[in-house]
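Below is how a single chain appears once it has passed through the pipeline. First comes the sequence as given, then the structure the pipeline wrote out for it. We keep one example in the README because the format questions we get most often are answered faster by looking than by reading.
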Amino acid sequence: MPSSPRPWVIAETNWKQVKATKYEVAVLPMGATEAHNWHLPYGTDSYQNDAMCAEAGRIAWEQGAKVGILPNIPFGVQTGQLDIPFCINMNPSTQLMVINDVIASLVGVGIPKLVVFNGHGGNDFKQMLRELQAKWPQIFLSTVFWPNVHDGSGIIDILGDHADERETALMMHLHSDLVLPKSEWGSGEANPWKLKAMREKWAWAQRAWTQATHDTGSGDPQHATAEKGKAYFEAITTKLATYFVELAAADPKALYERG
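Resulting structure:
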């Protein structure tokens, strides 16, 4: 735990600090509660969200950007995992209402920008933000999915998409006490679709997770190390912070280069 409240982490800070600060960007992390292979905790997405946003917020704050990291929402879209105990589903329609209420609270006190930070592959906020941006023109809305910040190339040997080497390495760095010994890791082998269009990825359907995987993992974690996790975490948070800094300084009414 930090030795003193971090003013960029809203859950830690206080009214005295908030009243004295003109926050420019709010960040809402949206995670999930779900199985992550045999060896990672159900809260993996949320643990990663909290750490990434707090560290990127620190870097941005120290560069003068007034960023406020909101508490992580720990539930995500789990409609393909309803047969797995404690994979808690929050439907997209519910997420839309949650984000709407957060926006209403921010607009009411003049916060000009919101970033929805996504830590779960089953979430997709783009269409929601299209609807909400039209409803709330007073605030600039954007979303970031952390694997798109840095996909792990150059650090991670085998890229997967769930409880893979990337997530295993990150959790070994962030919360090694919550990761089971390597002897208990699953292979993360996924079963391919029988449908050719699905395999070629020009058609899409939700995966039935217990049919598509053997251990709920999708991606081989075998080469994960805490050292890789540290390097990957630093690469993500350093780059994410550049967005926070740039966004904080930007004029929402002048965001396009004109020739």
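The two ends are 49 Å apart (CA to CA).

See the next section for the split statistics.
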